[in-house]
Amino acid sequence: MKEKIVNLLIVLCVGFLIFLSFRIGFFSGLENFFEDLLFIERPFHSDIVIIAIDDESIKQIGQWPWKREIFADALLKLEEYKPKAVGIDVVFPEESRFGKQDDQILADTLTKLSYPIVLPIKTNSLFIEKDRAFANSFSGQLKSFEKQASIGHVNLILDSDGVVRRFPLFVEQKSPANFSQEQKKIPAFAFLLAKKAGLEIPNEKTLEQIPRIVFSAKPGTISRVPFYRLISGEIPDARLKNKILLIGSTAVDLHDEKPTPFSKGTQMQGVEIQANIVNMLVSGYQFKPLSFGYACLWIFFAAFLPYLIFIIFKSSFKSILTNVFLGGVWFVLMLFIVEEGTVPNLIHINAAWIFSTISLFCRRYFVGEKEKHEMKKAFSHYVSKEVLEEILRDPKNISLGGEEKFITILFSDIRGFTSVSEKLSPQKLVGMLNQYFNAMSGEILKHKGILDKYIGDAIMAFWGAPVPDENQADNAVQAAIGMVEQLENFNKKQKEKAEPEINIGIGIYSGLAVVGNVGSETRFDYTAIGDSVNIASRIEGLTKTYQTKIIISETVKEKLKGNYFLELLDSVPIRGRQEQVKIYKIEGVKIRS
Fold first, then answer.
1. What is the spatial distance between Cα 369 and Cα 461, in angstroms, rounded to a whole number?
2. Among the four residues 22, 149, 356, 399, which has the most C-beta atoms within 10 Å?
3. Residue ranges per domain, the chain?
4. pTM above 0.70, yes or no
5. Has residue 521 got a pLDDT over 70?
6. How many of the other CB atoms lie within 10 Å of CB of 502?
7. Rounded distance between C-alpha atoms, residue 285 and residue 212, angstroms
């Protein structure tokens, strides 16, 4: 329970730190970068065409800026094509260098046109307050032009990395003397052009005041015709008839270009950015950020999800694998949401999930896995692989500090070891014991026993701790029978080497004992102590008296689930106990039912 609380506090701290980063916009630049990667090419409205003031047009017509009369001629020629609306992305803030008569020609032409005209103006100082755009003043068209056309602003918002991603739907002009006094609202050039063309804007009512621009194609993709071809009458009717036309600069020397999410090294001309905005509006494309409240909820959920996974899976590998899989599903879900026009905060939501996973894994590794490592180190030499896996599966269920458990204890001893040792050199004696212990220990571990210790020539083992064992009595008896069988093989090899054969006695008792780490701060062992251990040792000693290899107590007999060849030997007094203990001889192998 304590571990769960600590882990919960960890994920809450992670969630809060990520939320704080999100709140102050700490990774906004990185967020913009990754959101740019989500842009895909989208269909472009076939009615949108750019009439480009390109390098070739400047070469054909002459030095920029051109006479206003040239624009007047172009607008009159467009009457033949009956456009839905025309937007001229060129600002005429001052009188023509060719004289007032030149301005008058264009002003008069504007009054004769049968189609809507939209002219641009620019703010002198754009600033944002509470998701609204304001300006103190504008650089506009000549008054004679403004009276004859609709006016829209062409201001774009550059992020800190210099990339154009947003535009104000309206710019509100404030009085320099009183910033709270709203004077008028200027619509965006592209928005006004779409409205004047009579096209429906599907999500007009839900548009943000400063929407994200949904670019549809890389620079240079939108259909365009050179301005000089319009003047010369070389354009087929199908190219311009009944279209939304944007007249603007694409010439490199005029420097009307900015980087966009689609740029990839190639900047996009201002008129093409405006065309992308028109296309976005009339096509219903949107790229809205997830609302602040939902984004916060998602961040905390992303931090909390790994916590649930680490509770479900005890294995760190499974927890990490599941988190990685869900992370993939998570990201695909985000992409679906993006396709629907809503952009979740990729950086912070994924950061909450990733850092929460890493934090929980590190804690499990440095606390839980370290505990497992120490436990594996402590048990690996005296338990079987199967028992060790069971221990490591959930080490919290195992108390290493000492606890009383019902266990089955086995003692084994070599009969007449002193006489055997006198016949062998020290080197051969140690070699023989190593071979013997290896064979006997193998049977104990094979039957899920805990190999407690070697005491001279004796072996102590037990079952039922540190993990419960419902078949502890059967496992102990099966191990004893196996030890006897291994002894026969061992003695055959001894006889072949002309070395002394040995005999053993095995005593088994089931009862309560205290099991745990016993020893000093610098040296301790996992062992069993108590009266039951002493009884098992004394039962083993009785094998000499009754001339048999295996003797078990009645407490063992009562726990046996299998069928064995058992014979009651006696009820014997055990030193330190008032009541006598019934003992049984066991011979042969388990009878298979």
1. 27
2. 356
3. 2-25+289-377, 43-284, 396-591
4. no
5. no
6. 18
7. 10
